[in-house]
Amino acid sequence: MKKILVSGASISGPTLAYWLHKYAFEVTLVERAAELRLGGQNIDVKGPALEVVRKMNLEEEIRAANTTEIGIRFVNVKNEIIAEFPVDSSLSMTQELEILRGDLVQILYKRTKAHVRYIFGDAITALNQNAEQVSVTFSSGKTEDFDLVVSAEGIGSHTRKLIFGDEIKFKYLGLYTAYLTIKKASTDSRWARWCNVVGGIIFVLRPDNYETTRASVTFLSPELGYEKLSVEEKKDVLIKKIKNVGWEAERIVQEIKDSDDLYFERVSQVKATKWSHGRFCLTGDAAWCVTPIAGKGVDLSMSGAYILAGELSKTDDYEQAFMNYENRMRPFVESSQKLPPGVPRIVYPTSKIGVAILNGLFSIVGSKPVKNIIGLFSSKNKDPEKEIELPDYVVDTKRSVSND
Q1: Three-class SS of residue 77?
Q2: What pLDDT sits at residue 365?
Q3: Per-residue confidence (pLDDT) for residue 40, from 0 to 100
């Protein structure tokens, strides 16, 4: 049996831990935060992620935690509806299985906690590899030996830096984005609302299943290191950026002041020429962050974790397993990181005229005749082409996770 340490308790980490346990590995999962980080916005479970979820027998539990969102409306600064796309529309941002990031994290934790050793409030500070094992030092001062270590952390992975240093590159997409939970208002409904305002700013307000609203603010900007600021400094930057721009900005400004779950980060892709070094491997955003623009984050996190665990189960040669995992995943990652010409800047007009032109385009696309034509060619309601093959690996049923 191999003893494996996974760092990061978001989506890819617990998914990886689940499958590693299935294949009879001894798994420890360490998370820097003192408890599960249950914040975050709506995410969709579709394609490869849905396939993995079904293999885990989690579909009904995820369906029961649906955010209640019924579609998206594009509105102007007067809150007038320009176009709307219900969940069954080929152009809707809303998917059939919409769940809050935190709810999915909670579901994955519940499914794995009985069989995976979770360590909260600790982090990896040093890794020393030799031919037999990896000696890990934690911020708590404890040390422990493992056969393999996997970073399933986020875009700013600290553990990745211990192994790869500055070798990993980032492709900044010209945007910063912020997420927070806000109080529900009379203008909120089961429809998500998207509003472009002058200055290259997009507001999105989305319903959740907790009688609150999930807000995001995304804006054009040169890369200025905002993600490195303190929470209060981040709040100041956001407030200065959106104050007096119209629509529901003043409501959001007040909510930013009071927020205790603000997330503020640059929108960048992670570009890594390799995902492993010796007994250490990357998965999830630490390996390939494709950004929310691609709409593939959960697909990649869950399929990557599934494939990495499966390949490790097939051979005692971990280097070969890491290579097989990368060969299977990299084409999907590279395809997901490709963006159409002009994206994302094309949907972030900075002038009043630019916003009016974009809203006019939304109105045309949202008209019934155009939606009907597009629907004829859409694959949303058909069986989509498989983006990645998920092999059926052999499971050790004697050690399988309970409640499957």
Answers
A1: coil
A2: 86
A3: 82
9, 107 contact by CB (below 8 A): no
β-pairing, 3-7 vs 148-151, is parallel
| CATH class label, 3-337 | alpha beta
On the CB side of 228, CA atoms within 13 Å amount to 3
pTM (two decimals): 0.91
Q: What is the pLDDT of residues 73-125, one digit of tens each?
A: 999 999 999 999 998 886 777 888 899 999 999 999 999 999 999 999 999 99
Pairing mode of beta strands 71-75, 191-197: parallel
**Contacts of 340 by beta carbon, 8 Å cutoff, 6+ apart:** none
Distance linking the first and last C-alpha atoms of the chain? 22
Domain extents in the chain: 3-337
pLDDT at position 124 is 98
For residue 24, with 0-12 CB atoms within 10 Å meaning exposed, 13-18 middle and 19 or more buried, which class applies? middle
Query: What is the H or E stretch that residue 182 is in?
Result: strand 169-183
